[in-house]
Design a protein that fits this description.
By secondary structure, the chain is mainly alpha-helical. Helices cover 66% and strands 0% of the residues. The protein has one domain.
C-alpha cells in the first residue's frame, strides 16, 4: 500500500484532500488536468470496475464500502475544485 505523507517521519498519511491540495500547490497545471480527468469518471464507471471483483476476493459489503469511499473522495475533490479553482 502506498500513501502520501506531509513530511519525512510522519506516522500518519495525509488525507486524500490534503494530499491533492499539496500536489496542486506544487503544480497547479497538473492539478487542473487531474480535475478534468476526474470529471470524466462517472459513478457507473466506478461500479463497472467494482462489479468485476470476484466474490471470493471480497465480500459484497467490502466492495460496496470501497466503492462508496471512492465516490465520496471523488465528490470531495470535485467540490474543492469548485470552491478554489487553480
Amino acid at each position: 500500500m502506498s500513501a502520501f505523507y506531509g513530511q519525512v517521519g510522519d506516522r500518519k498519511p495525509l488525507p486524500t484532500l490534503s494530499a491533492f491540495q499539496r500536489a496542486a500547490a506544487f503544480s497547479p497545471k497538473a492539478a487542473a488536468v487531474w480535475r478534468s480527468r476526474l470529471e470524466e469518471i462517472t459513478d457507473e464507471m466506478i461500479s463497472f470496475v467494482f462489479d468485476k471483483i470476484p466474490s471470493n476476493r471480497a465480500s459484497t459489503t467490502a466492495v460496496t464500502f470501497a466503492q462508496q469511499v471512492l465516490i465520496m473522495n471523488k465528490e470531495r475533490l470535485q467540490r474543492k475544485s469548485v470552491e478554489s479553482p487553480s
